[in-house]
Amino acid sequence: MTSVVAGIQEVKGHRICIVDFAAIQNSVAARFIICEGQSNTQVEAIARSVEEFTEKMHKESPWMKQGLRGGQWALLDYADVVVHIFHKDWRAHYGLEELWADAPQQFVPDLEEARPSPEDFPEY
Known about the structure:
By secondary structure, the chain is an alpha+beta fold. The protein has a single domain (2-110), classed as Beta Polymerase, domain 2. It has helices at residues 2-10, 40-58, 88-94, 96-99, 111-114, and strands at residues 14-20, 31-37, 64-66, 73-77, 81-87, 105-108. The chain has a six-stranded mixed sheet with strand order 3-4-5-2-1-6.
């Protein structure tokens, strides 16, 4: 899972949400990782980055890939972990977080949010 999040963050994917299905019976995966890109090109770049990080860190390739050419949505299925990468305009339309609202969800801060601002440092 860390390789997926690292791959998303490498190319500045936004609004990462990890949906945990461990307590949900008959779920399709152990976790969904959902994120978004600001453009079609970024959606494709996030998918490539996740694949590269997961291959490098775990020597794993997705069992299935879908939607990689359109840039509005991409899916990478690693069996236990399914990665959904949406164009920002399409994410709300599908509402996966709301669809699985009964499952615990963890939101990962965007890197820009996690970084200190210049106001956090005293002037020298």
